[in-house]
Amino acid sequence: MQPVRGTRDLIGETFRRQHGVIEVARHVSNLYGMEEWATPIFEATSVFARSLGETSDVVSKEMYTFEDRGGDSLTLRPEGTAGVCRALVSNGLTQGNLPRKVFYAGPMFRYERPQKGRFRQFHQIGAEILGTAEPLADAEVIAMGWQIIQQLGIDDGVVLEINTLGDSMSRDAYRAALVAYFRQHAASLSADSQARLEKNPMRILDSKDEGDRRLVAAAPTIDAYLTPHAKEFFDKVLGYLEQFGVPYRRNPRIVRGLDYYSHTAFEFVTDRLGAQGTVMGGGRYEGLVQEMGGPPTPAVGWAAGVERLAELLPESPEATRPVAVIPVGLAEEPAALAMTQMLRQAGIPCEIAYKGNLKRRMERANRINAQAAIIIGEAEVAEGMYIVRNLTDGSQDRVDSAALLPALAAAGVEDAMLEQMIENIEAGFEGDDETA
């Protein structure tokens, strides 16, 4: 049996890389006052079909949609924003609870050709600020994304590209100009772009077809069609980004691939991933919460592919190095188990081999890359002593309980873990005598 095409197992270094990305993002999101939400991995198909747009590639080509035994049409989520907006409405959070600042992380599903950094089951992190129309929210959520990229250590060569899609009046005027332009070249457009010409011509700007790209290069930009309000809004966003210290460059061709965006649209891009150059993207959207049955609710957010971010990491996060607790024989197992529990309650990862003589247990300690071993033999039990072996350099000491913690620290166990261990030991002495 093999994993389904476009999926993979996350094991060892691969898992650590992706988990590291999510944990950094989770930490930074907390600094920005975000609360983490988790929505179901499948929703009613209408949640995505209505919100993403019937002409989008996601809806027309990529969604995993199926009918359940009750006859309901369900879809594995292809992105996170629609589910967050549905949750806002479903949980009655649209009245008196805004704005809400939401962070999420989890798997998404799209049926597309697997390629480097792109899978049919992939993972995203995302952030949404729901219920505010202020341009400061746009700049703050972008600044949060930039801080995540910086703290991951992947900012070298990553650039923020930003554009405005304007307000509804701006888009109506711009749409008419695009239709007039592309109708002159309709015969040269790809089949997908020909279908979009009448329904959503702005989507043509996002086409990956080479022939379309040549036509797009000469297409009009939105700047000439911006209303004063839309221009002022965009200028404020750029001004706030400068105050946040976020570098950017203007790209008038960014439109984002989904129907619900307005005003700000942006992408963090890099040339270090080949053709798949976008690592984070998003923008402002106005009608999505209303599409879910809620009131008109302005919002702004972004999503980022965890696989792509993980691929850019300069080095893999190190696996946790535990402490190995090794009883020399069966008679010493009770003392070894007591030591194991004390370490774990202190937050120190440790492992005890289930069976084997001293040699085999030491081999196991080396296989799991333990940083230290606490060896307990008959004499150690009788005398209240421990043998602490540093498995990095091979040195070892025979110490009493008072010197155990310094010996572990010398072997590389983190000071914070040891401090917690001391607190637990002292609390034991102050509490139950038997435990102490």
Automatic annotation (TrEMBL):
<dbReference type="InterPro" id="IPR004154">
    <property type="entry name" value="Anticodon-bd"/>
</dbReference>
<keyword id="KW-0436">Ligase</keyword>
<dbReference type="InterPro" id="IPR041715">
    <property type="entry name" value="HisRS-like_core"/>
</dbReference>
<comment type="similarity">
    <text>Belongs to the class-II aminoacyl-tRNA synthetase family.</text>
</comment>
<dbReference type="Pfam" id="PF13393">
    <property type="entry name" value="tRNA-synt_His"/>
</dbReference>
<keyword id="KW-0648">Protein biosynthesis</keyword>
<keyword id="KW-0030">Aminoacyl-tRNA synthetase</keyword>
<dbReference type="InterPro" id="IPR015807">
    <property type="entry name" value="His-tRNA-ligase"/>
</dbReference>
<protein>
    <recommendedName>
        <fullName>Histidine--tRNA ligase</fullName>
        <ecNumber>6.1.1.21</ecNumber>
    </recommendedName>
</protein>
<keyword id="KW-0067">ATP-binding</keyword>
<dbReference type="InterPro" id="IPR045864">
    <property type="entry name" value="aa-tRNA-synth_II/BPL/LPL"/>
</dbReference>
<dbReference type="InterPro" id="IPR004516">
    <property type="entry name" value="HisRS/HisZ"/>
</dbReference>
<dbReference type="InterPro" id="IPR006195">
    <property type="entry name" value="aa-tRNA-synth_II"/>
</dbReference>
<dbReference type="GO" id="GO:0004821">
    <property type="term" value="F:histidine-tRNA ligase activity"/>
</dbReference>
<comment type="subunit">
    <text>Homodimer.</text>
</comment>
<feature type="domain" description="Aminoacyl-transfer RNA synthetases class-II family profile">
    <location>
        <begin position="1"/>
        <end position="322"/>
    </location>
</feature>
<keyword id="KW-0547">Nucleotide-binding</keyword>
<dbReference type="InterPro" id="IPR036621">
    <property type="entry name" value="Anticodon-bd_dom_sf"/>
</dbReference>
<dbReference type="Pfam" id="PF03129">
    <property type="entry name" value="HGTP_anticodon"/>
</dbReference>
<keyword id="KW-0963">Cytoplasm</keyword>
